[in-house]
């Protein structure tokens, strides 16, 4: 069902999913779940983190992931909160991107290391 190309060097892992795959799988969300399971999306992301102290609270954010913040009484608490928020945001954005795609879309992925 899924064709996969990989370049284990430094840059690209690509998976192609056709609209026929979507129809056979029972829908986009079922296909997304299967894709995520088969592609092992435990991708490692590393982001620059900025921590500021605002009104006695530590606020952390990643410039590469706009609109997502972590807050806490300590720097560590803010970083833990930020990690959870970024993880949720990336998962939500991935799912929304698949859900909102046209039926004839082809899905690809890249891994940047």
Write a brief caption for the model.
The protein is an alpha+beta fold and 113 residues long.
Please tell me about this protein's structure.
- The chain is of the alpha+beta class.
- It has a single domain (3-99), classed as Double Stranded RNA Binding Domain (2-Layer Sandwich), CATH 3.30.160.
- The protein is 39% helix and 19% strand.
- It has three helices and five strands.
- The strands form two sheets. It has a three-stranded antiparallel β-sheet with strand order 3-4-5.
- A hairpin with a 6-residue loop joins strand 1 (3-6) and strand 2 (13-16).
SSE arrangement, N to C: EEHHEEEH
**Lateral arrangement of strands in the main beta sheet:** 3-4-5
CATH class: Alpha Beta
Mean pLDDT: 75
Class by SSE composition:
alpha+beta
Task: Based on Cα principal axes, name the global outline.
Answer: elongated
Q: What share of residues are in beta strands?
A: 15-25%
N-to-C CA distance = 27 Å
Rounded radius of gyration (Å): 17 Å
Number of helices: 3
The tally of beta strands, per DSSP, is 5
- Identify low-pLDDT runs: 1-17
Q: Please tell me the total number of domains.
A: 1
Architecture, according to CATH?
A: 2-Layer Sandwich
Tell me roughly what share of residues is in helical segments. Answer: 25-40%
Fold-level CATH name: Double Stranded RNA Binding Domain
Give the biggest sheet.
Answer: 3 strands, antiparallel
Oligomeric form of this entry?
single chain
